Amino acid sequence: MSACKIIFLGLLGCGLLEVAHAEKVTHAPAGHAAPEVFTNSFLVEFHGDVDKAAADQVARDHGFQNVGPLLRSKREYHFIHKGLPASRSKRSISHHRSLKANPQIKLVQQQPGYRRTKRGYSPLNSKGQIPLDKEKEPTDPYFKFQWYLKNDGSMGGKPKLDLNVEAAWAQGATGKNVTTAIMDDGIDYLHPDLKFNYNAKASYDFSSNDPFPYPRYTDDWFNSHGTRCAGEVSAARDNGVCGVGVAYDSKVAGIRMLDQPYMTDLIEANSMGHEPNMIDIYSASWGPTDDGKTVDGPRNATMRAIVKGVNEGRNGLGNIYVWASGDGGEDDDCNADGYAASMWTISINSAINDGQNAHYDESCTSTLASTFSNGGGDPKTGVATTDLYGRCTKTHSGTSAAAPEAAGVFALALEINRNLTWRDIQHLTVLTSKRNSLYDAKGYFKWQMNGVGLEFNHLFGYGVLDAGAMVAMAKEWKTVPQRYHCDGGKVNKTLAIPANGSLTLFIDTHACKGTENQVDYLEHVQAVITLNSSRRGDVIMHLVSPMGTRSMILSERPNDDDHIDGFSKWPS
Question: Residue 92's domain is classified under what CATH number?
């Protein structure tokens, strides 16, 4: 029998499980919940299977347009009504009733709208090509600025603090036959550094509902985000344009889904379930608002899409979902981001070129590894990559820049071993990432040793990704055994959190021994928590393993003054 201990730290309140309290802080002013918003999108579920033509006809009969099925379903469809505004403060009861009156229709849900923000947006930096003439290195003019690929210390960084991609390239890994989808604001697929690696068949525009995910032009170049991320993965090598991608022979797909006033569950779900047997990796550099007070994550359909992707995508091997951990800084915590904190995704944080964490990095136990964003000595030393309209930039930054770098490393491993599952990629990430020179400049988060002798850090995960080591291990890797899920124990009573004190809850488990779900090797641990506090931002939670590994599953968030919503069945 093993005991798992969960510790809560917080102000006076009550919760399911256990708690103590953070030191007194100066609180931000009380906030107010954002007003509810409803879009002109509707989820329509039929009683039985209907084909697209029949769904189209039903939509037309009621003044709607059928955008298409949800996750290739034959019963659930996405309808929009162009006579309704894209956002409004009240549900449209009349449109709901009109659809619900149709005897073929079982369920109608007008889609609420919510905010999803890009991470690490920075303004345009104009193109200036500088030739390189070094043998065996990429000749691309911006390669000398790509310190995250090869850090020689010339840009103020620590030599050899990089992704070690040259060691992977030397083993023949360049990303051939691997496709990464950039779920973002579109891709400039006409860019000379991207056009020959662009996978048009795997691309789609869910903002405009057409096959052409080209960015919408704005004077401030705000929609350059996806193009910059795409270049980090798949920018061509030795073509005299910009820099080189981590996996420069891989394909990149554009999924434009981030460019509308409000996100909906249907857009997210269909984006994450688009062409799952053609797309290997989905890269997301966005998430809930990084304001230190938001607790949000995937809605129902989106969660279904992700779970379906990891279980059925890539012809059963599972899609890999790479997520930027967030740019909320020390006042935020990516455990409160349901995308980055999910066991189904790989959460990636960032470091700067001298080994420190970036000032915008969030901490959380779900972060598996780190890549790179800004330079240390010069804040303008960002990530060099492709930009809109054939241009280049040296100022891409944030965890937005970190996630595509990780996607590129995973593409290298997938080329070498096409049988790797989504879980294999997680194992390889943990086993090959390196502490290197990474450190928390403020000293809050120290490196710790877990029960099996691996170092981890709540900012950096298991360290910086090492492409050379991952490719080498991928060559010899044997797929991990079948996954089993065990419900380790529950506490179904309400426990009070002592004011300025702590509450410790012990859960004893046999790991489902003797059943078909018996767990022999621990891979993921998830605590599902329902908790209410007089001030949610003061609650701190730790999960302690039977071997004594202490994981912070929620840190103090001084901007979060919620006293109503708390956490409801929140997976941590």
Answer: 3.30.70.850
Cβ(403)–Cβ(284) under 8 Å?
Answer: yes
Which of 476, 510, 537 terminates a domain? The answer is: 476
Active site residue 359: no
Burial class, 183, CB count within 10 angstroms (exposed 0-12 / middle 13-18 / buried 19+): buried
Q: How far apart are CA 477 and CA 455, in angstroms?
A: 21
Look up the domain containing 330 and give its range.
Answer: 118-476
Active-site entry in 21, 95, 191, 225: 225
13/44 same-domain check: no
Tally of domains in the chain: 3
Query: Which amino acid, one-letter code, is at 544?
Result: V
Residue 210 a catalytic site member? no
* Active-site residue identified among 140, 162, 184, 562: 184
Q: Using alpha carbons, select from 349, 320, 355 the residue that is nearest to residue 333.
A: 349
534 flagged as catalytic: no
Active-site residue, selected from the candidate residues 122, 350, 400, 533:
400
> How many CB atoms within 10 Å of residue 267?
25
Per-residue model confidence (pLDDT) at position 21: 46
| pTM of structure | 0.91
3-class SS of residue 286: strand
Q: For 165-175, write each residue's pLDDT tens digit.
A: 999 999 999 99
Question: Which amino acid is it at 549?
Answer: T
- Which of 349, 356, 473 is CA-nearest to residue 405? 349
Q: pLDDT tens digit string along 246-293?
A: 999 999 999 999 998 899 999 999 999 999 999 999 999 999 999 999
How does 339-376 read in b/e, with b if 16+ C-beta sit within 10 Å? bbbbebbbbbbbbbbbbbbbebbbbbbbbbbbbbbbbb
3-class state of residue 402 by DSSP: helix
